[in-house]
Amino acid sequence: MTQRLALVTGGEGGIGTEICRQLGHAGRRVVTTCMDPEAANIEAWAEALRKEGIDANWIQCDVSDLSACEKMAETVREQYGDVEILVNVAGITKDGFLHKMDYEQWFDVININLNGAFNVTRQFVESMRKAGFGRIVNISSVNGQAGQFGQTNYSAAKAGMHGFTMALAKESAPKGVSVNTVSPGYIKTSMTDAIPDKVREAIISQIPAGDLGEPSDIARAVAFLTADDAGYINGANLPVNGAQFCSF
Description:
about 15% strand, seven-stranded parallel β-sheet
């Protein structure tokens, strides 16, 4: 498989790390964005992947800052070359019922999860179009499909990501660029570890598969959609949620 360059935003997280790992084992060179390198211990993260034989690197970037994304893209091109695969993973939660939610909670989640996808994708989609090849995957959520108590901000941002996907797919398909969404259900990460036990048990009781998913479940979907021969799958949303939410 061609050693294409993959940029994974927020790749140091539980899902992001596994995406980087599986792309790397598929022969891709991987670069991740990281907002706070010290807090993420990002160099140790990259070194761990390198020990697995993966060409892994990182660059500091706040995806919610358009200017920072422009500088990031310039640096990535200079140091590593053209990005041919982009996976928009970076995201946060700031939960609360809407009648108690302040503007900062709303704005921060929309700005990082949704605006961040624009800020980063805008830097690379033109070069993909010119090259006649590109793979873009946006990581949404089951809660962007079904909604969730206390997550009007997160659900809106994640639903918006798939609207972004569908429109950009129509624009990009004639130029050999595919744009798809993967919508994870509840996955075993530090985020779900922080959920109180009783709440987690209630969530699991609603999942027909009987358990939370693994980060590798999401990474396999991303690897599939970013394969060189997967270009005709375009504008799709691939749910990975253990049948918690089913639609067509």
